[in-house]
Design a protein that fits this description.
356 residues, alpha/beta, Rossmann fold, seven-stranded mixed sheet, 50% helix
C-alpha cells in the first residue's frame, strides 16, 4: 500500500516516524489487558495487532476500505476484527467496549466534537479512552508548515478543555523524542532498569504529541506510569551517521542541480544577449525604414500638390476653352447674320428674290 502522508504504512515510511506511532500503541497496550478494545482510525492495522497481543478482543475501524483490506491481509489475528466505519458514526452499540483507542485521528476530522461524543457513547461507564494528537505549537507553528490532511490542531489548553467537555477525568501525557543510551543484550532476558533524566520545563509547549487517558470518573482513571520505547532501530550513532550520509547525498544532489542551473543560466544569458543584439539591429532597420518612409511620404505629398496644381490649370484651360468656344460660336452667328443681311441688300439692289 502506498504511503500518501495521511496513514502510516510500515516499510514505506521513515523508521523514526513509524516508531512515534508504535510508541503510542505500546503505551496503550499497558491499559488493554483482557479488555474489549475499539481502535478507531486504525489505518493499516499494525497498531491494532499490538493491542491484540494483550486484549481479549480488538475491533479495528477505519473509513478507508483499502486500509481495512490491507490490514486484514498483513496484520490478521484471531482476536482482531477489521471493519469500515466513520469515526463520527461508529458501527457499535452503546456501552459496548472497555477501551477506545483514537490515535492521530481527531485532527483529521471535521466533526471533532461528534467523534468525542461517539467515543463516549460506545464506551462502558467505567471504560477508558486513550486519544492522541500532535501539539500544534511544535508541529505547525514552530515549523511554519501546514498538514493538508488536518482540519484543526490543538495546543495543550485547547486539547484539555476539549476532552473535559465530555470526560470528567483527563490525564495528559507528553510524548517526545529523547536521545538515549543502552547497555544490554537482547538475547539475554533481563529486566530493563531505566533512569530518566528529563527537562520538564514547559512540556505543554515543547512536546511533540499529547497522549490523553480519559474516563468518566476519577475512580476509573488508571496509573500506567511513564513509558519509554527503546526501538531496535534507535541506534543513535547509526541514525546520526545515516542522517549525515543523507545530508551529504542531498548536498551532492543540490550541487549537481546548481551546476545544471548555472549551465542553463549561461545558455539563457547568451541567448538573451543574442536576442538583445537582434533587437538593436531590428531597431536600426526600423529607424532606417521610418526615415525612408518619411522621405517617400514627403515626395508623395509634393507629387500630390503638383497634381492638384495641374488639375487646377487644366480646369482653368477647360474653362477658357469653353469661353472661347462660346465666343467663336457667337462670332460665327454674327458673321452669318451679316452675310445674310448683305446678301438681302445686294439682291434687293439687283431685283432678285432669295429663297428663305
Amino acid at each position: 500500500m502506498e504511503f500518501t502522508g495521511e496513514r502510516i504504512v510500515p516499510g514505506s515510511v521513515d523508521t523514526d516516524l513509524l516508531n512515534e506511532h508504535i510508541c503510542r500503541y505500546r503505551f496503550a497496550r499497558l491499559l488493554v489487558e483482557e479488555k474489549v478494545v475499539l481502535d478507531v482510525g486504525s489505518g493499516v492495522g499494525y497498531g491494532s495487532k499490538i493491542l491484540a497481543e494483550t486484549a481479549s478482543s480488538v475491533l479495528a475501524v477505519d473509513v478507508s476500505e483499502e486500509a481495512v483490506r490491507y490490514s486484514g491481509e498483513q496484520y490478521a489475528a484471531k482476536n482482531l476484527e477489521m471493519a469500515v466505519g466513520d469515526g463520527q458514526e461508529l458501527p457499535l452499540a452503546s456501552n459496548s467496549v472497555d477501551v477506545v483507542v483514537s490515535f492521530e485521528l481527531i485532527e483529521h476530522l471535521q466533526g471533532q466534537q461528534a467523534h468525542l461524543l461517539e467515543v463516549s457513547r460506545v464506551l462502558k461507564p467505567d471504560g477508558l479512552t486513550v486519544i492522541s494528537t500532535p501539539n500544534r505549537i511544535f508541529y505547525s507553528q514552530e515549523s511554519n508548515q501546514a498538514n493538508p490532511f488536518h482540519t484543526h490542531e490543538f495546543d495543550f489548553r485547547e486539547f484539555l478543555d476539549f476532552l473535559k467537555s465530555v470526560f470528567s477525568s483527563v490525564e495528559i501525557y507528553f510524548q517526545n523524542h529523547i536521545a538515549g543510551l543502552i547497555v544490554g543484550n537482547p538475547s539475554l532476558y533481563r529486566e530493563v532498569a531505566t533512569f530518566l533524566q528529563e527537562d520538564v520545563d514547559d512540556l505543554q509547549a515543547t512536546s511533540n504529541f499529547f497522549v490523553a487517558v480519559c474516563a468518566h470518573g476519577r475512580q476509573y482513571q488508571p496509573s500506567p506510569g511513564n513509558f519509554c520505547l527503546l526501538p531496535g532501530s534507535g541506534n543513535l550513532l547509526r541514525e546520526r551517521q545515516l542522517n549525515i550520509q543523507r545530508l551529504e547525498e542531498d548536498v551532492a544532489r543540490l550541487d549537481r542541480a546548481l551546476t545544471r542551473i548555472q549551465g542553463e543560466y549561461e545558455q539563457r544569458s547568451s541567448w538573451a544577449l543574442q536576442l538583445n543584439r537582434q533587437v538593436k539591429s531590428r531597431d536600426r532597420s526600423l529607424m532606417q525604414l521610418r526615415a525612408e518612409f518619411e522621405d517617400r511620404s514627403g515626395w508623395a505629398e509634393e507629387l500630390s500638390r503638383q497634381l492638384e496644381e495641374k488639375d487646377k490649370a487644366i480646369l482653368k484651360l477647360q474653362s477658357e476653352f469653353e469661353d472661347r468656344t462660346r465666343w467663336a460660336l457667337e462670332m460665327e452667328t454674327k458673321l452669318e447674320a451679316i452675310k445674310q443681311s448683305r446678301l438681302y441688300k445686294l439682291a434687293s439692289l439687283l431685283g432678285l428674290k432669295l429663297k428663305a
